[in-house]
Specification:
- The protein is of the alpha+beta class.
- The chain is 57% helix and 15% strand.
- Strands 1-2-3 form a three-stranded antiparallel β-sheet, with helices on one face.
- The longest helix has 31 residues, at 66-96.
- The protein is elongated.
- 13% of the residues are buried.
C-alpha cells in the first residue's frame, strides 16, 4: 500500500472513531433513570453515572416512619442506579460491540446488568 493511501485510510479511521466518541458522549448525556417506589411515595432520578439528581417525596411519604422512609429511598435509588447502568451498557454496546472494551465498562456494574 502506498504511504499516501495508508495515511488517508488512517485519517478515515480516526475520523470514524472521533465521530463515534462524540455520538456516544451525546447518547450518554441523555441516559439516566427515574424510578418510583411501588406505592408511589418516593421518586429518585439518577444520571448515567448513577449520581443522584433528584429525590421527590409525595405526601404519602410523610406517613412512613423515618427508618422505613430512609430504606425506601435507598432501595428506590439502587433500582434507579441499576436501570441507569443497564442503559449505559446498551448505549456503549452500540458503539463498542461485544468484547474487551465493553467488558471494561461493565465490569463494576451489578451482575444483572452485565451481559
Amino acid at each position: 500500500m502506498e504511504p499516501a493511501q495508508w495515511l488517508a485510510d488512517y485519517r478515515d479511521r480516526i475520523e470514524r472513531v472521533a465521530y463515534n466518541a462524540r455520538a456516544a458522549s451525546a447518547s450518554l448525556r441523555e441516559v439516566g433513570a427515574s424510578v418510583t417506589s411501588p406505592r408511589g411515595e418516593v421518586t429518585v432520578t439518577v444520571n448515567a453515572g448513577g449520581g443522584l439528581e433528584q429525590v421527590r417525596l409525595t405526601p404519602a411519604a410523610r406517613k412512613l416512619e423515618t427508618d422505613a422512609l430512609g430504606a425506601l429511598i435507598t432501595a428506590t435509588s439502587r433500582e434507579a442506579q441499576r436501570l441507569a447502568s443497564a442503559r449505559v451498557a446498551e448505549v456503549m454496546a452500540v458503539y463498542l460491540g461485544e468484547g474487551d472494551a465493553l467488558a471494561q465498562i461493565t465490569q463494576h456494574q451489578p451482575a444483572e446488568v452485565v451481559r
